[in-house]
Amino acid sequence: MSGVQISDLYKGFGAYPVLAGLDLDVPAGSLTAILGPSGSGKTTLLRLLAGFERPDRGTIGIAGKLVDGEGTHVRPEQRRIGYVPQEGGLFPHLTVQANVAFGLPRAARRQGVGDLLEMVGLTGLERRYPHQLSGGQQQRVALARALAIKPEILLLDEPFASLDVHLRASVREEVARILRQSSTTALLVTHDQDEALSLANLVAVLRDGKIAQCGPPQDLYARPIDDELARFIGEANILDGVLDGAFVDTPLGRLPAHWHGEAPPRKCPVSVLIRPEQIELQPGDSERGLMGEIARSGYHGHDAVAYISIHQGHSSEQILIVRTPGDTNLSTGSQVRLLARGPMLVWAAPSTNRHPELLEQ
Amino acid sequence: MLSLAVAVVLVAPLCFLLIEAHGAGTSTIVNLIFRSLTASLLWNTIRLTLVVTVLCAVIGTSAAWFVERTDLPGRSVWAVLVVVPLAIPDFVVSFGWASLSTWVEGFRGAVLVMTLAIYPLVYLPVAASFRNADPGQEEVARSLGVGRLQTFWRITLGQARTAILGGCLLVALVLLAEYGAFEILGYQTFTTEIFTEFNVSFNVPTASALSLVLVLLSLLVLCGEGLTRGRGRVSRSGPLTQRVTARHRLGRARVPVLAGFLLLAALALGMPVGASVYWMLEAGHGYLTGVSLLDAAWHTALYSGAAAAIATLMALPVALLAVRHRGRVYQLLERSTYLVLAMPGLVIALAFSYFTERYADGFLYQSAPLLILAYAILFFPLALVGVRASVMQAPPSLEEIARSLGRRRAAVLWRVTLPLIAPGLAAAFSLVFLSAVTELTATLILIPTGVQTLATQFWAYQQNLAYGQAAPFALAIIALAAVPSYVLGRFFDRLPSRTSPST
Questions:
Q1: Considering only CB atoms, which chain A residues are within 8 Å of B420?
Q2: CA distance B22 to B209
């Protein structure tokens, strides 16, 4: 066994519980993203894994070895954990060379550092001090330093959050490449769903001190377990519908349906998830599709988002989010028709707002 | 554990004092306290403290504002000249004035001399706070339609308030503890009276009774500062980048302001140094005994250096504990060390000498270790200030990373924590060294028999009116104190870059 196994983990600060019965399996060699809003306990989870804090209850296993729980607590220095904090956390009084070599035995320093710096593409900067490096360079030195000890698992705490937008994408790519190259198991904490979806091969969403759902990014986007998660990962339209066998009747017509777990009763009210890109806009005078009126729109260059007001049955007005190509003419107030594509995910109705904090993201 | 031991050592003199007073009998003590002598001492002490504190606040704050916030010509030079008087012991300033002018004596002499000697205690923290505070807030205030003068009162002084109060606190405490300067000026305060009772009349009950009142006064000052500190805080919005803001233009006020700085430097710096040089030249070369000067300088450096090392070492665990562990018990432990601030050097020295004589059979009495320990306790709060500031700058996350890289706790302390706080340790060492070199009162009582430090030798000559022989010792003290002052200046100049460079 390798990777990380966490089971039934509890941690609170004072009376305030942060993690409450968290279970998570991280397979060896994977890059797993822990996704959650600010204050959801992501950093606490990393600090527990690194051994900086002790859990109140539960067990943590790293590379098949129990490091927390059942009366044991392995100290941070004995865990072989590479930890890369948000700002890199380089030792300001040491050169790049000495930073990277910090965890290495004396004999391995010279050769080891050279190889590592080459891997992160910073050869030649050995004698610089951290304040003489750019933000992206600092991140890469921090990564090299963490990789130097050949860690069982690498922990990255929002490593790209402090970089500016232009830098972020390139450093992100770079880090992903280095991680693949060194085939290190890595756990990345982020509140940026875009980052999680594009970078990780496994995404775990942290909610209420538990992992709400864990799976490959495509799975998480296409098959969230409830409407809150659907809204947290990407944009979502949630409509009322009636399930009828393998189909669901929605205001947008009769569409193929799929669901989690065992099949629901043959005919029942459900909530339907329709992603913005599953809806197609047709001119207002075309024959098919649900009538709607463009309430407002936002232009993003590569595409545009239209907010379309519809009337669903006899209930009140509802706004649907629709993604369209950037060159679509979206003048406010004009009439359009909506066509939906593909199988729709349904959950048993009614949908409730149990987790408003996820919606803020 | 280590911190607890430090706290016990620090509170020891206070306990000795209480035991001592208790030994004299409660009723005796009460009688000694409630008499007219106490009242007149109280009046002398309080009026001096009030007047000098206000003067220091005005001079220190305005000097800091002109240096940090205006286009005063030669700012960097003034920034040094204004602080240097701190390296000149109060009793040397006093000597410089009193030996040349008979006008300088009594209350007016004490006000003049003490203001000139210790206003840098206000200048330093206020200048630092002006450097740190966000000048953008002034601009915002102006843009909201508040006038220049109003902005100065409401924003600028508001930003510096904590620093001003902190400086005033130090000034008041120094005034309560000062002995040498007042003795020369013939001005009677609690400290001079206690010294006379103890060292001349050997009247222990009176000395300890008056000491109690003195400690109580210092405690009152400390509490007063604590009360005002809690409200409001200085902060700057946005990231801690040093912005370049336009300095206020002095315009036509430039000449009078410059004249003011010249006058200040002449009075606070020129006068004591000039007087010492004058008396040395006056006496000619015949009096100069090079050997005794060197010997005294060596002992001064030895005792001060040892005390500085010990005080810094004691401050390290307390600072680490108080900054890193935010618990009630730890905070209390740290607070208890501030009690030392309320213990003037004289009182600590008395407590030690009385206790060793009475209960320890004279063991260690008037020995070098006891004097060094007394210094270390007396100046512990200063060491703590330096170490604390540095510990707060060293992010604990760096230590965690070091541990996750496979280093043990001890190795992390040695390779990460200590290098990070090294500047603070150097500052703490310098601060204690500087203070010990210029210390007179406790030294006079605890100095080992047959040994002279620069301060005690100066004092002996000065008391015999041998000004020519005293002067070289005064100059040697100033020279010895100048080195750590320079180190300190560098440290506090670098403090504003508060974040670690890795962000």
A1: 91-93
A2: 10
Amino acid at A277: E
Tens of pLDDT, residues B230-258: 544 444 444 444 444 567 788 788 899 99
Which pairing describes strands A267-274 and A317-325: parallel, antiparallel, or unpaired?
unpaired
User: In sequence order, what DSSP letters do the residues of B3-70 get, joined into one string?
Assistant: HHHHHHHHHHHHHHHHHHHHHT-HHHHHHHHSSHHHHHHHHHHHHHHHHHHHHHHHHHHHHHHHHHHB
A130 at B interface, C-beta within 8 A: yes
In this complex, the residue of A80, A138, A149 whose CB is nearest that of residue B502 is A138
Closest partner CB to B416 (pick from A50, A91, A146): A91
Instruction: Please tell me which residue of chain A has the smallest CA distance to B396.
Output: A89
B216 or A357, greater pLDDT = B216
Q: What is the pTM of this model?
A: 0.75
Confidence at residue A354, expressed as pLDDT on a 0 to 100 scale = 43
Q: Which two tokens stand for residue B375?
A: 């210094």
DSSP B177-229: H--HHHHHHT---HHHHHHIIIIIS--HHHHHHHHHHHHHHHHHHHHHHHHHH
Q: Sign of torsion, CA A258 A262 A264 A265?
A: positive
Query: What residues in chain B have their Cβ under 8 A from chain A's Cβ atoms?
Result: 395, 397-398, 400-408, 415-416, 419-420, 500-503
ipTM above 0.85, yes or no: no
The answer to whether A149 contacts B401, with C-beta atoms less than 8 Å apart, is: no
Chain A residues whose beta carbon lies within 8 Å of the beta carbon of residue B407: 77, 102-103
